[in-house]
Write a structure and sequence with these properties.
alpha+beta, two-stranded antiparallel sheet, globular, seven-stranded mixed beta sheet, 277 residues, single chain, disordered N terminus
Length: 277
């Protein structure tokens, strides 16, 4: 990653690691993002998105997890071996990395400690979510650091009890081009065709500016979306996004998007801080 023809971020993250810790990282990994489009109590649908994260990482033999942020160089998190549970109170930007490390350890994959520098292409302050990209890049870093088999790491990444997290994290970590992910409450996962560009379409995600609260899921929306994607009916998926309902702060924006020719629009991402897609 020190090659001058490498992308700038891939060169700068290990350089930041070197400046912070006085040595080069053992590995540098990256991942695209995952975005939840629809969710109901039984399942969630997520798709890969181009914004992502980069993690520079090294092993350590004391079991400590130390995380620093290139986006916020003055901030850092250091967790002792007994402080890795997901319930630990850490800043929002560090939570996805802790989540990924904890899932691997909870799956019995024997991960030791690590020192990480995390970088995201979009700031965490936006409602557009970047956490799944951080979780995926962190999972890949531990996979390389400790020789964890890829399928086992993917299974661990999908172990969340929250189907929204599971779908988005798996969309970031394990999808191939042209695929979407459906994660169900019974822990099953399905891959579906997802290629808007082939139909001359694109997914546009908008930052609303102020935090909003999503009104809640409608039962059966994900199954309807599954049938639409399997049938290549993207207009139907757009209508489902609109039908899912939007909070009052989104109403005018949804109407404007649809009037401008969108197939549909609605809140996407983190239900507590939804962006509009």
């Amino acid at each position: 990653m020190t090659r001058v023809d490498a992308p700038a971020d891939l060169r700068m993250v290990p350089y930041t690691y070197l400046k912070m810790f006085g040595r080069q990282p053992d590995v540098v990994t990256s991942a695209q993002g995952g975005l939840r489009l629809l969710a109901d109590p039984s399942a969630a649908l997520a798709v890969p998105v181009p914004w992502g994260a980069i993690v520079a990482a090294s092993t350590r033999d004391d079991g400590v997890l130390e995380i620093r942020s290139r986006n916020r160089p003055a901030e850092g998190v250091t967790l002792q071996p007994d402080q890795w549970p997901e319930s630990i109170r850490v800043p929002g930007w560090a939570r996805p990395a802790v989540r990924a490390a904890f899932r691997l350890r909870a799956a019995g994959l024997g991960t030791g400690g690590a020192t990480l520098v995390v970088h995201t292409g979009l700031p965490f302050d936006l409602a557009i979510p970047v956490g799944s990209a951080v979780a995926a890049a962190t999972t890949r870093a531990f996979t390389e650091l400790y020789g964890i088999p890829g399928p086992a790491a993917v299974t661990a990444a999908g172990s969340s009890v929250f189907v929204e997290d599971r779908a988005a994290d798996l969309a970031a970590l394990s999808t191939c081009p042209g695929e979407a992910i459906v994660a169900r409450a019974d822990t099953t996962v399905h891959r579906l065709p997802w290629n808007p560009a082939a139909a001359g379409l694109r997914l546009l995600v908008v930052e609303p500016g102020d935090p909003v609260t999503w009104p809640g899921p409608r039962g059966g929306d994900v199954d309807r979306a599954v049938r639409a994607l399997r049938g290549g009916d993207l207009p139907r998926l757009g209508r489902l996004l609109t039908a899912a309902g939007a909070p009052p702060a989104f109403t005018a924006a949804v109407a404007a998007a649809n009037n401008a020719g969108a197939l549909g629009a609605g809140p996407v991402g983190d239900p507590s801080r939804a962006a509009m897609g």
